[in-house]
Amino acid sequence: MDNAFIATTFDWDHRTPTDRQRTANKVFRKLRIRAQLTPPPPNMASVEARMNLFFLLEQVLVNKIPGDIVDLGCNSGDSTIVMRKILDELAPERQLHAFDSFEGLPELSENDKQDRVYQKGYMAAGLELFKRKFEALGLKMPHVHKGWFEETVPKDLPEKIAFVLIDGDLYESTKHVLPHVYGRMTPGAIAMVAVYYDEKILPRKGLLGGFRSPGVKRATDEFFKDKPEKVSLLYANEYSNGYFRKQ
Ligand SMILES: C[S@@+](CC[C@H](N)C(=O)[O-])C[C@H]1O[C@@H](n2cnc3c(N)ncnc32)[C@H](O)[C@@H]1O
């Protein structure tokens, strides 16, 4: 299927400087000031991360891996929209499940506090906004599970999972969902771990913490210490992703 909808549904023009920024950049160059203005990057995912999502989900559907599709940390719905669009075209019979507190991040544990990236309530986006986005695009609503992962997972997870996006940003959120999700993934199923940021491979100095979410990698690596699968890194510019395929 085409993936042009990723460009037409969302605004990804964030790396092209506006005319004003271009003018300012010219002035900087003349004055030999080593600075360059660009629009700010988006704060949930980069276009590369959406492409990664597209190709990973498409892969399990084309390969007819059994199970439902899960978005763990759907926020205002952009990742769920990408998933819905792909399912509508390739596998409309598959059930799509979206989980979020719709109140942003929970109270931080000591483990997450030490990273000094996040705070309680950060990224709060209400369920109404999620619904409005689906309505505006004329898309069928997924099964929405509102609440803290600690209450909704595993209770509301489908029995079999073919694809899951794990996007909770925190160590504790990732640590909590991983074993439950892993246990329900069918052989060949894929989990994409958003913001699995490997500083050793992609040392992007000067990036704000939110792009890094170090707790995600910590929790994921801990979990996979005694598992046969390997988590692979996928480049995604300001963000990067991990994924593994269930054996
Ligand atoms: C980065 S956002 C998700 C972005 C979305 N997947 C996208 O790509 O557009 C992370 C989300 O995880 C949710 N979240 C994190 N920990 C949670 C928890 N323990 N329970 C419920 N929601 C949680 C937050 O509310 C937030 O909306």
Ordered list of secondary-structure elements with their pairings:
Blueprint: H1 5-9, H2 19-30, H3 47-62, E1 68-72, H4 78-90, E2 96-100, H5 110-113, H6 127-136, E3 143-146, H7 149-152, E4 161-166, H8 171-184, E5 185-193, H9 214-224, E6 232-236, E7 239-245
Parallel strand pairs: 1-2, 1-4, 2-3, 4-5
Antiparallel strand pairs: 5-7, 6-7
The protein binds S-adenosylmethionine.
Q: What would you say this structure looks like, in words?
A:
The protein is of the alpha/beta class and 247 residues long. The protein has a single domain (44-245), classed as Vaccinia Virus protein VP39 (Rossmann fold, 3-Layer(aba) Sandwich). The chain has 9 helices and 7 strands; from the N terminus they run H-H-H-E-H-E-H-H-E-H-E-H-E-H-E-E. A 7-stranded mixed sheet has the order 3-2-1-4-5-7-6, sandwiched between helices. Helix 8 (171-184) runs parallel beside helix 9 (214-224). The protein starts with a helix and ends with a strand. The site of S-adenosylmethionine has 21 residues, from helix 4.
Global structural class:
alpha/beta
Tell me which CATH architecture applies here: 3-Layer(aba) Sandwich
Largest sheet: 7 strands, mixed
Number of spatially distinct domains: 1
N-to-C SSE string, H for helix and E for strand:
HHHEHEHHEHEHEHEE
Helix % is: 25-40%
User: Hetero groups bound?
Assistant: S-adenosylmethionine
- The CATH C-level name is Alpha Beta
Could you list some keywords that capture this structure?
about 250 residues, alpha/beta, Rossmann fold, 7-stranded mixed beta sheet, 7 strands, globular, binds S-adenosylmethionine
